[in-house]
Amino acid sequence: MSYKQEYSKSVEDPQGFWQEKASAISWFKEPQTILSQDDNDIHRWFADGELNTAYLALDYHVENGRGEQAALIYDSPVTGNKKTYTYNELLDEVSRTAGMLVDLGVGKGDRVVVYMPMIPQAAIAMLACARLGAIHSVVFGGFAPSELAMRIDDAEPKVILSASCGIEVNRVINYKPMLDEAISIATHKPSASVVWQREQSPGLLNDGFDHDWASLLATAKPVGCTPVNAADPLYVLYTSGTTGKPKGVVRDNGGHAVAMHYSMKAIYNMDAGDVFWAASDVGWVVGHSYIVYAPLIRGCTTIFYEGKPVFTPDAGAFWRVAAEYKVKAIFAAPTAFRAIKKEDPEGELIKAYDLSALETIFMAGERLDPPTYEWTVEKTGKPVVDHWWQTETGWAIAGNMVGIERLPVKPGSSTVPVPGFNVQILNESGEPAAVNEQGFVALKLPMPPGCLPTVWGDINRFRSGYLDQFPGYYVSGDGGYLDEDGYLFIMGRVDDVINVAGHRLSTGEMEEVVAAHSAVAECAVIGINDDLKGQQPLGLILLKNGVDMDHDQLEQELVQMVRDAIGPLACFKRALVVSRLPKTRSGKILRRSLRQIAAGQEYGIPSTIDDPASLPEIEGLMAEAGLISAAAS
Ligand code: COA
Ligand code: AMP
Questions:
Q1: Which of 175, 310, 436, 477 has the fewest Cβ atoms within 10 Å of its own Cβ atom?
Q2: Which of 280, 384, 499, 507 is the best mutation target for the ligand 2 pocket, counting ligand atoms within 8 Å of the beta carbon and taking the most?
């Protein structure tokens, strides 16, 4: 079937299309209702079906003769360890870990927070929760204790699973003290914490609350799969919105399993037995979908990599892993390839490895700039696919579906809408934009299986953040256009979310932190272009009257405050003191104009501006500090 036929079918007859895709996975009870609406009037897929996601990822394959196939390969250049888990072994670990959770009182519907580095126990923890119908909430290890605390308070977990430390290239990051701090800040108190002790730096266990993971596991009994309804949540994953409070994206079991299974073939062209490698982190949606769930549901081998694209030990790391395990598809953020390109511009290290098994390189998480696209194609000789998606959708909204039909590539475009996603470009008043006209990238409802049905505990936030702006549509928060061939070009966020090294961050949240400094009267944080990380945050600071503080000293203090409050991954490194911030007459900071200045773009002086001289003045200051991007002018 051609892409066009597949896509048309998915939008003309969504129920028939997804019923057929759903029949490809193994249900405990096949769904009779394909699409319905829940009590909140939100579309739900397969509502009366029953299944278990861990069953699909493990037991199903063992029952169907894949028990001795590698399920997960752990490769850790930062510790020098490698370990392969067959499907039999992973099933055994997961069912005993589920038993360990049962012993701690965890059951269906309970939340479990997972705060871990890239070690196999993180995947085992997720799958163990899924086995019980418990809801996991994984928190990325680079987040500071206060961020973890916010998530604990929102998800209200019964138990927290963690590890004593993570390793960043050659630095040990002690997780346990951060976990202790988070638990002490949080209002909600979990009943227990379980710590995987790593030899690089074991943590101090508090009597009566912390448990040693390995000791509990030694006596835990394996448990079977708890059937859940398709609409029951599998996990909650927090992501940055425009305010300081992260949003808990809810993923259901049934729609997710169907989307994961379908996408592995349609988008990535992966069959059972193939080796797939998403070089991300389980703390992000890519890690949930394509390190853990989709490859296992499809019966593939997944690579679990604890390392970086560079310095562990060099810029050949990706090629070494791809060659060693005969990886068929790699998926990583463009930043990773920009880092490799910076260290090995001629691609010399690529030549040292046999990449004959590698079929396609996939990139997502941020805009794939044409130079990075072209470098990767030229140096590897492999097709590169840019695909666009979000934590909210859980899988790609647009891409080049190589498992259906490989379409010609247009650099800068994430190709065409994925079947099931009715992508529309809308103008300010919600009317369809013309071909090649930029607007809000929206998805006509219903969205396909796998997409969020709500924000955890806050249906109103789901409605106001995504559904209310244009009735009948989900608004993605990205701007872009469709060209005359139906190719989608994503041009960046239209809100205050930025992407730093493929990590999604809220400038509003950084502003809250920066504004708390005693010298700061007001501030605006915007994203500016960065050659390596795509974007980096820049703080524009207005000092309080009468404050005379050394600007370098202030910058250092603000950098430390953001690091402590959000985490090192925020990469907040620059703060510029200005004498006034451009505002509308009603007092709103003109962030869009500031972004345009930083991007070296033409900017108009809005008629609503209070002080027309403020924009050129900031432009001058930013130019002097070398903060205006020449590339985008
Ligand atoms: N735990 C603790 N700290 C972490 C962390 C983790 N899991 N991940 C990152 N950090 C820290 C880093 O050590 C760094 O700290 P520093 O400021 O003290 O040096 C900081 O957070 C910023 O990290 P990062 O943005 O990753 O920069 P880097 O310079 O360490 O590495 C790259 C640069 C390009 C190698 C790296 O960003 C990368 O691999 N990017 C790919 C991104 C990706 O996979 N995204 C997932 C979406 S698909
Ligand atoms: P996250 O939820 O962390 O996956 O971030 C989602 C956001 O990352 C999207 O809303 C986009 O702004 C950006 N993004 C992801 N993939 C792409 C892509 N292929 N091209 C452009 N932007 C992307």
A1: 436
A2: 499
The residue to mutate among 308, 314, 340, 342, having the most atoms of ligand 1 within 8 angstroms of its beta carbon, is: 308
What percentage of the chain has pLDDT greater than the value 90? Answer: 93
For ligand 1, mutation pick of 198, 335, 504 (most atoms within 8 Å of CB) = 335
Closest CA to 223 of 335, 99, 306: 99
Query: Can you list the domains of the chain with their CATH numbers?
Result: 3-307+387-480 (3.40.50.12780), 495-624 (3.30.300.30)
Q: Are 417 and 3 in contact (CB under 8 A)?
A: no
Residue 243 has pLDDT above 80, yes or no: no
In short, whether 563's Cβ falls inside 6 Å of ligand 1 is no
Report residue 42: phi and psi, to 5°: -100, 140
Average pLDDT, the chain: 96
Decide whether any atom of ligand 1 lies within 6 Å of the 310 Cβ. Answer: yes
DSSP-derived secondary structure letter, 369: -
Instruction: Indicate whether residue 327 lines ligand 1 (CB < 6 A).
Output: no
275-299 as b/e, with b when 16 or more CB fall inside 10 Å? bbbbbbbbbbbbbbbbbbbbbbbbb
Mind listing the pLDDT tens digit for each residue in 473-497?
A: 999 999 999 999 999 999 989 888 9
Residue 619 · residue 633 · CB < 8 Å? no
Token code pair at residue 557:
């203090």
Report the alpha-carbon distance of residue 555 to residue 317 in Å, rounded. Answer: 35
Shortest-distance Cα residue to atom 9 of ligand 2: 390
From atom 5 of ligand 1, which residue's Cα is the shortest distance away? 142
pTM of the model: 0.96
What is the C-alpha separation between 448 and 45, in angstroms, rounded? 8
Handedness of CA 468, 472, 476, 478 (dihedral sign): negative
